[in-house]
Specification:
CATH architecture of the largest domain: Alpha-Beta Complex
Strand content: 25-35%
Number of strands: 23
CATH topology of the largest domain: 2-enoyl-CoA Hydratase, Chain A, domain 1
CATH superfamily of the largest domain: 2-enoyl-CoA Hydratase, Chain A, domain 1
Helix content: 10-25%
Length: 406
């Protein structure tokens, strides 16, 4: 479901979303220092109290930088302006309240839509080497002939030895229409490919079946998640017409969250109408209850939920609601523990502001902020050398399936 309102309630794990690029993109503003005001007072009326701020210090520092900084080419007025706003917002001391430049704001929205520019391949690490887990369907990577298991030796002539996944992704991604050269090792043969990057759309819902168990992997709560979810659920319902399925594993490991509305929607698939999903509590003591408001299609199918240290916010709401209503068992490791709600506001010129507006409470009354949710069955993953998780090594999924079939 596409949300078109200017403000949306968000539950996202990482304050690192303000670090999309390596720096600010310089804008096109022309700021003439001689036209800058030297004394501006800002008044904030709050219950009769007026706080006046003298902005002359701000402009004094600005002009001193322009007059004295050793390399004037590094002083970008737009970046300085945005940096000042970022500092102001950061002074609130809340890592989830932050200002986004227009470029960062667009990236934030693209992330929730599952959009990025690149070649469209899932990367992993195996024995310290960057490997292709799988090319995405109809992606530039697939069309170029990249295959699962290919080892990436070089990116644009630079060796990948010692690279981690973040480094590999940052080097391979790039603007649509630009080329990237990869040297691959396939078996004992080296292959060189030139791939033109394109816009990649990654779905947030993936469905598979194993041992008469439906496995639904939910990677985020984004713009299109509800529609993708409905398609997957329809497939499950069709598959289970004759009672073929023994249960469902809802895999929300490493799901950082997204839209609050999405958490309510997903929870409603499993809980009776009117059930409390989450309570939103404001600083003034008032609160708002979010309840199941649609008939679910998976009300009777046994469910196990997979969570780990990367499951946060919206995914914790779903997991917590299903656990508190005794609708599902949780398997894995303790979740991240983010119990606040942000409002995403579009600002002038395409900029954005995310503001923490409330905390959320699970149906059982627990505020899991900085505590997380403990699984009913604690299962650790044992991976060596930082290798990427494979199905064969996924003991958490094994445990979840065994709960449903035994």
């Amino acid at each position: 479901m596409k949300l078109n309102s200017l403000t949306n309630k968000l539950l996202v794990i990482s304050a690192a979303i303000i670090l999309f690029g390596s720096g600010f993109k310089a804008g096109q503003w022309n700021v003439n220092k001689r036209s800058l005001p030297t004394d501006i007072a800002v008044s904030n009326l709050e219950e009769g109290n007026v706080h006046d701020l003298d902005f002359s210090l701000f402009w004094q520092v600005w002009q001193t930088l322009e007059d004295k900084f050793v390399d004037s080419t590094k002083l970008k007025p737009q970046a300085m302006f945005y940096g000042a706003i970022k500092g102001m917002v950061a002074s609130a001391g809340d890592s989830y309240t932050f200002f986004l430049t227009p470029e960062e704001n667009k990236q934030s929205k693209d992330d929730l839509e599952g959009l990025f520019d690149g070649i469209g391949a899932q990367l992993g690490l195996k024995n310290g080497m960057v490997v292709i887990v799988a090319p995405l369907k109809n992606s530039p990577a697939q069309k170029a002939g990249i295959k699962p298991g290919d080892i990436i030796l070089e990116v644009d002539g630079k060796s990948t030895e010692g690279w981690n996944l973040i480094m590999a992704v940052s080097k391979i991604r790039g603007k649509k229409g630009t080329p990237v050269k990869l040297k691959l090792l396939r078996g004992e043969k080296q292959i060189e490919l030139k791939i033109i990057r394109d816009e990649i759309k990654v779905e947030s819902v993936e469905l598979s079946f194993e041992k008469k168990i439906a496995i639904l992997h939910l990677s985020r709560f984004g713009d299109d998640t509800n529609a993708e979810w409905d398609r997957a659920v329809s497939t499950i319902v069709d598959r289970n017409k004759n009672g073929e399925l023994k249960g469902l594993v809802l895999d929300m490991r490493d799901n950082p969250g997204g839209f609050l509305q999405g958490a309510i929607y997903i929870s409603s698939e499993f809980l009776p109408t009117g059930s409390l999903v989450v309570k939103q509590q404001y600083s003034n003591g008032s609160s708002e209850d979010y309840k199941v408001d649609r008939p679910g299609k998976l009300l009777k199918l046994p469910v196990v939920v997979l969570v780990n240290e990367g499951s946060a916010s919206a995914s914790e709401i779903v997991a917590g609601a299903l656990k508190d209503h005794k609708r599902a068992k949780l398997v894995g490791k303790k979740s991240f523990g983010k119990g606040s709600i942000q409002e995403a506001l579009d600002m002038q010129g395409g900029a954005g502001l995310h503001v923490t507006i409330a905390k959320w409470i699970l149906p059982g009354g627990d505020w899991i902020n900085e505590k997380g949710i403990k699984p009913d069955v604690d299962v650790a993953l044992e991976l060596t050398n930082g290798d990427t998780l494979t199905r064969q090594a996924d003991k958490q999924l094994d445990a979840a399936i065994n709960l449903l079939i035994n």
